[in-house]
Design a protein that fits this description.
Blueprint (H helix, E strand, L loop, with lengths): L3 E3 H11 L12 E5 L2 E7 L9 E8 H4 L9 H22 L12 E2 L13 E3 L3 E8 L3 E2 L2 E2 L1 H19 L7 H24 L1 E6 L6 E3 L2 E4 L15 E6 L3 E9 L2 E6 L5 H10 L13 E3 L3 E4 L7 E4 L17 E3 L4 H14 L4 E5 L5 H4 L3 H6 L14 H8 L2 E5 L12 E6 L2 E4 L1 H10 L18 E3 L7 E2 L2 E2 L1 E4 L3 E4 L2 E4 L9 H13 L8 H15 L19 H9 L6 E3 L2
Parallel strand pairs: 1-2, 15-21, 15-22, 17-20, 20-21
Antiparallel strand pairs: 2-3, 3-4, 4-7, 5-7, 6-7, 8-9, 10-14, 10-16, 11-12, 13-14, 18-19, 22-23, 24-30, 25-26, 27-28, 28-29
Helix pairs in contact: 1-4, 3-4, 3-5, 12-14
This protein binds adenosine-5'-diphosphate and magnesium ion.
Length: 573
């Protein structure tokens, strides 16, 4: 990269290379003073159809002039970055012209977020500057440089977008404050769960249903029934922004969500699994929060498994497979669900979220009649119902279960929430009365305590991101990582919500290899503390900017590695 040059230099370079072959664009890499901005051209694409060029637009903090308190804590800074990213993205189509020739010519884009406010790399609010990382398709006709069009894009349009988005005075201060407050309140609320004795909180008035199965935006407010807590589970909390807020706690222990079909059970559970993230104002779930180590658990038949201890749930298999080190290229419904729980416990999960819609029936319960017909010594499965209380008592792990079919779980529940036309009621006592009046006759099938799940040590040699000798990690959407010669299927990892999180997960798998000496959990703890300290930039393999990461939890990083089919492990301490 050259030193800092003036806009005139870029202007004249673009004039000079106009009409030349596309490779001539390589000459414009560098940093330029463009009006009040610095424009970094970090990576220049090789041709108009290749991955777009990577740029950064930077403005001095004193020009942008955002009040210091908007970024004085990490949650605030993340929220301000998120706000500016959305503002920049919204201004783009109003200023940029769009298609300007062949391939990606004319493209100008930033990494757009969804309904969550996540830590991302697209905007950086630093003490001295604000920086937006963007991609652009440098314009060409065929493969010939369109230098004058590039001038318009780089020297006029992109700075103009920056002008509209990056100055405090161009925004409604109340809008920004609302955004920052939403994040801050959500973080605050989550931090209070422990004192509330709860694994989740759903504020009164929240709107949980989504617009459709393919949209994460809220259902039209004229059709959505606002959440209202049952009195017995209602608590009041104080939040820095919203002040006094009331809502329902989901207590620690074992909680059932019951109710008729289509009464909103799964919608509530889904809101809880998303409650590990913070949401934008207007989402409806701004004040729905969950234990940050809550993990959605489901059956996932066909997934690969590497040396996982599922023996608390599955004993000796008919083919003699050792379930203390369960390894298979294709797990069944019940063994995959047991695996997902053991892997989550290994990573320190403290709440399990389970929906019967996506569970293996034989994993959830064996009723009295089945116990009589199929003898215990012929059945390798210890159903979840016989482990769920031990999990809480011995491991401090709570469970929240959506159930419509099996009342056997009334015996093991601390709290029963009944959904009735989208309204929750406290049915704990009613369920206890039913349980007392109608014994199931089931015999407990588990041992007395829930054993420790041993940590596994991944074999670094089994994690190979290379393809034809070169590191190659790509992602498709939220749920596929192409890792070297393999595809990792993450479609059952439901708490991965943003394609930019998936991109980060892919590159973290490469980055984490240097820490793979002990257990997986230890290695990912090291990664996590790196991310705490330095943010997401260091995981990027590019020399150009990594403007398209969003931060994942280490639980999801582990979930990805655990689904890598080549993974081999040994047992750690
Ligand atoms: P269940 O799991 O009890 O069968 P779902 O949670 O799948 O039910 O909800 C059924 C339908 O009702 C879904 O289309 C969902 O979007 C809608 N729904 C859920 N909660 C609400 C609500 N509070 N207001 C309006 N519609 C809702
Ligand atoms: Mg359901």
């Amino acid at each position: 990269m050259n030193g800092m040059a003036d806009a005139e230099k870029l202007h004249s370079e673009l004039g000079r290379i106009d009409g030349k072959g596309y490779k001539a664009y390589k000459d414009i890499a560098g940093a330029y003073r463009v009006d009040e901005f610095i424009l970094f051209i970090d990576h220049v694409q090789g041709d108009p159809f290749a991955a777009p060029s990577r740029l950064r637009l930077r403005i001095p903090a004193e020009d942008a002039d955002f009040p210091a308190e908007l970024s004085s804590t990490r949650p605030r800074r993340v929220a301000l970055e998120d706000y500016l990213l959305r503002a920049f993205d919204a201004a783009l189509p109003r200023v940029t012209q769009g298609n300007r020739g062949s391939g990606k010519s004319g493209l100008v884009a930033v990494d757009t977020p969804g309904q969550e406010i996540l830590e991302r790399t697209a905007v950086v609010v630093a003490p001295e500057y604000i920086e937006v990382r963007l991609v652009t398709g440098l314009p060409a006709r065929g493969r010939k440089v369109l230098g004058f069009q590039a001038r318009e894009m780089l020297l006029e349009e992109i700075p103009e977008v920056g002008r509209r988005a990056l100055y405090f005075r161009r925004h409604d201060p109340e809008d920004i404050a609302t955004h920052v407050r939403a994040k801050e309140d959500s973080v605050h609320l989550r931090a209070q769960l422990e004192d509330l004795g709860a694994v989740a909180f759903v504020a009164d008035g929240s709107l949980l249903p989504r617009a459709s199965g393919v949209s994460d935006r809220p259902l039209d407010s004229s059709r959505a029934v606002p959440f209202r807590s049952p009195d017995s589970l209602r608590r009041r909390v104080e939040l820095p922004g919203a002040g006094a807020v009331s809502g329902m706690i989901v207590p620690r222990g074992v909680t059932l969500i019951v109710g008729g079909g289509y009464h909103g059970k799964s919608t509530l559970l889904r809101a809880l699994d998303r409650g590990v993230y913070d949401h934008v104002p207007g989402d409806g779930r701004e004040l729905v929060v969950a234990d940050p180590r809550a993990v959605k658990i489901r059956a996932e038949d066909g997934r690969a498994v590497a040396g996982v201890d599922i023996s608390p749930f599955i004993g000796a298999l008919p083919d003699g497979t050792d379930t203390a080190r369960f390894t298979t290229p294709a797990a069944s419904g019940s063994t995959s669900q047991a695996t997902n729980i053991s892997e989550a416990l290994e990573m320190g999960a403290s709440t399990l979220l389970v929906d019967e819609d996506t569970s293996a029936t034989n994993f959830m319960v064996r009723d009295r009649r089945m116990q009589l017909l199929v003898r215990r010594d012929r059945e390798p499965i210890t159903p979840f119902i016989d482990r769920i209380r031990q999990l809480h008592r011995d491991r401090g792990v709570s469970s929240v279960l959506v159930l419509g079919g099996s009342g056997d779980y009334f015996d093991v529940a601390d709290t029963v929430i009944m959904m009735d036309t989208y309204r929750p009621a406290d049915a704990t006592e009613a369920a206890a009365r039913v349980a007392a009046g109608h014994p199931t006759g089931r015999v407990l099938e588990s041992g007395t305590a829930f054993p420790e799940i041993a940590g596994r040590c991944p074999d670094p040699g089994s994690i190979d991101p290379r393809r034809r000798g070169r590191i190659r990690v790509r992602t498709r959407g939220v749920s596929t990582i192409q890792f070297g010669t393999e595809d990792i299927d993450l479609s059952a990892v439901e708490q991965l919500v943003d394609p930019s999180q998936t991109r980060a997960v892919g590159d973290i798998l490469v980055y984490a290899r240097k820490y793979l000496k002990g257990t997986l959990a230890e290695a990912l703890q090291r990664v996590e503390s790196d991310l705490e300290e330095k943010g997401l930039d260091p995981i990027s393999p590019f020399d150009g900017h990594p403007g398209d990461y969003a931060r994942p939890r280490m639980l999801e990083v582990a979930a990805a590695l655990n689904r890598l089919r080549s993974l081999r492990v040994s047992r750690g301490g």
